[in-house]
Amino acid sequence: MALTRAAQWGVWLLLACVCIPVWAADAPKLDTANTAWMLTATTLVLFMTLPGLALFYAGLVRTKNVLSVLMQCFAITGMASVVWVLFGYSLAFGDGGGANAWIGGLSKSFLDGITGTTLKGTIPETVFVMFQLTFAIITPALVVGGFAERMRFSAMLLFSLLWLVLVYIPVCHWVWGDGWLQKLGVLDFAGGTVVHINAGVAALVAAVVLGPRRGFPQTPMPPHNLAITVTGAGMLWVGWFGFNAGSALAADGSAGMAMLVTHIGAATGALAWMFCEWVRYGKPSVLGIVTGMVAGLGTITPASGFVGPMAAVIIGASAGVLCYFATHFIKRGLKIDDSLDVFPVHGVGGILGTIAAGIFVGILGGAGLAEGMTMGKQVGVQLVGVGATIAWSAIVSFVILKVVDGIVGLRVTAEQETEGLDVVLHNETGYNL
Predict the structure, then answer these.
(1) Is 203 a member of any domain?
(2) How far is Cα 94 from Cα 100, in angstroms, rounded to an integer?
(3) Terminal CA-to-CA distance of the chain, rounded, Å?
(4) Residue ranges making up the domain that contains 238
(5) ∠ CA(285), CA(288), CA(292), 5° rounding?
(6) Which residue of 122, 312, 368, 425 shows the fewest CB atoms closer than 10 Å?
(7) Taking the complete model, does pTM exceed 0.90, yes or no?
(8) Where are the beta strands (DSSP E) in 159-299?
(9) Overall domain count for the chain
(10) pLDDT for position 7
(11) CA dihedral sign of residues 154, 156, 160, 163
(12) 123 phi and psi angles, rounded to 5 deg
């Protein structure tokens, strides 16, 4: 009997020696290499908004409105940061219980329970919070381009606040926060639906609700400083590596491929737009090549972690051509004054890229389809994601604009618009000429 008991203790001791290391291996551990990369990527994405997008947009408007655009980007950065810390992160990535398919809960409001040692996978959750915050900043900032040069600052701030809470955060949860679109299998590596379609549709709705700028389309409204725009465009190109490659949340092969295809998408998008203009007008323009670059970047974004280099060439080139013609159709065909071409560049690009992710994930060196998924089925899932994002953003954005108009009024007066928003709204000028 004593031998039997000793044998039993020996077996238990042996199991403990074997299982304890296995259990320890399963527990998440901090990876300092991944953390270092994500700190860098987070900085790059914030750099996209300030100063990248701010300068890109500022150069595109007229001299009298340059400060207004810069001010809007800075104000949105501050506002979105506070909202994200208070409850935005929790609603986007928290557990919503029975409603988790649609929205996260409030368990992580005020970043409750998140400390320096709390992990999200292999990186500190604080880093993940900050990385996702930069996306929440740049998305409403993109929408600014749809109503540039004519919206009141108070209206812009209130609209951006409500839009962030009621449009961006729910879609973010659907796609990235274990919501219904993620469970459906939608592929959106870095923001085709969450960022680009979402912002593009909202900008189009805002442009329609506010109406065109005074003089549009008869009066030419060229960019006042293309040098500033090109500077901002270069910052966007570099910052986008953090946007897409950072979405791998690790310093691994997926991040490396995402960075490579991002660059290819930007390059081919820029060249395709340039050649379209060259053929049509006989001269390539600086404005065209940088806009094509942004179109290529926005279009490769949802597919960046799923497709190979040759697919990126096709996607980027398609973006340059399609977004070029979409821009002309919106402005000249429909006569909608989407001031800085947010919908035809980001909206159309996001739609194209999201669908392309479903097509190329399984071919030309793509990451491969999920088990049981065919190309046709995946494309169908992608179309559901596109349609849901368009519908939600369009309907809710329209309602928010009407509510804001009733509270503070959306648009400056005709006289104020003629004088310029810099002086009227901020009592400052961008240049002392």
Answers:
(1) yes
(2) 8
(3) 101
(4) 30-426
(5) 145
(6) 368
(7) yes
(8) none
(9) 1
(10) 53
(11) positive
(12) -120, 155
